[in-house]
Amino acid sequence: MQLARTVYTRELKIAAMRALDAGETGAQVARRMHLSPKMLERWRAEWRAQGEWAFPGVGRRSQLALNDASRKIMELERKIGQMTIENDLLKKVLAQLKSQPRRDATAPPPLDSTAPGSTRKSPKRRKREDA
Question: Following CA atoms 75, 76, 80, 86 in sequence, which dihedral angle do they give, to the nearest 10 degrees?
Fold first, then answer.
């Protein structure tokens, strides 16, 4: 049997953090709000790291916490990453092309004597009559 996971509201979390900032101890806040002290420690770490942007809600972390400037920065960084990958690929292709011997564009390609339809005849094998 699975236990239902408790979901705490953003307002409750912020109220708990403000109480801690006001000078209450973690144990006092935990008892008063019926929370685990360990949970308060995790919330406090997130509160210190993100400030007012902390606790955005389920699945909305990236959308709520980003303003227009940071969205633009993320978009540009993504484009830089894509262009870096494209440049690396083009450099590899260019290096391969440079390493291949250069052929004259008007000259016909060399004939492969093993290719089907080649004009060169292979030597006939003689049957051994000693056997």
Answer: 60
* Contact assessment for residue 39 and residue 15, using Cβ atoms and an 8 Å cutoff: no
How far is residue 45's CA from residue 10's CA, in Å, rounded to a whole number?
15
CA distance 39 to 14: 13
State both tokens at 36: 């685990």
Closest CA to 13 of 3, 64, 45: 45
| pLDDT tens digits, 71-90 | 788 889 999 999 999 999 99
Give the pTM.
Answer: 0.44
> Are 54 and 42 in contact, with CB atoms under 8 Å apart?
no
